[in-house]
């Protein structure tokens, strides 16, 4: 039986839909009542977070929630080293680190809410090369003892 199948072309049942762009994927299905989530990212490689004002974002019609690092636990996560918080709390340690998150009725409202969040940073020295990070007097990015191997 197996010898009759080996070497025989088997047509893909979904091939035509995928090639023509008419295939429907799970991401294409509407989810009734679902909210849009978006996160605000740090523009700095290393900075203290001096102040975050989310009041205007929270007051925007269609916004269900706005959270910052102060609203989430202090647990750490990471794939190789547990050294990341869900949202930055007192400082950011890389460009793009998440600082705040919003949940809103639609994507445009979520983005509008992000645009209303005010973050005051105090930029700190950053390191971008291994040799810089190991040099005496290099900025300390992670507090000693906070990161743990996975």
Structure write-up:
The protein has 150 residues and is α+β, with helices and mostly antiparallel strands. It has a domain at 33-40 and 55-126: Aldehyde Oxidoreductase, domain 3 (Alpha-Beta Complex). The chain has 5 helices and 8 strands; from the N terminus they run ααββαββββαβαβ. It has a 3-stranded antiparallel β-sheet with strand order 1-6-3. A 3-stranded antiparallel β-sheet has the order 5-2-7, with no helix packed on it. It has a two-stranded antiparallel ribbon with strand order 4-8. The protein is flat and about 70 Å long. The model has no long low-confidence stretch (mean pLDDT 88).
Helix content: 10-25%
**What is the CATH architecture annotation of the domain at 33-40 and 55-126?**
Alpha-Beta Complex
Structural class: alpha+beta
**How many strand segments?**
8
CATH hierarchy, class of the domain at 33-40 and 55-126: Alpha Beta
Distance between the termini: 47 Å
Which H/E pattern describes the elements?
HHEEHEEEEHEHE
Strand content: 25-35%
Instruction: Spell out the CATH superfamily of the domain at 33-40 and 55-126.
Output: Aldehyde oxidase/xanthine dehydrogenase, a/b hammerhead
Molecular shape: flat
Strand order of the largest sheet: 1-6-3
Give a brief rundown of this model.
By secondary structure, the chain is of the alpha+beta class. The chain has helices spanning 2-5, 15-20, 55-59, 107-116, 130-134, and strands at residues 36-41, 47-53, 63-68, 81-82, 91-92, 98-104, 118-123, 148-149.
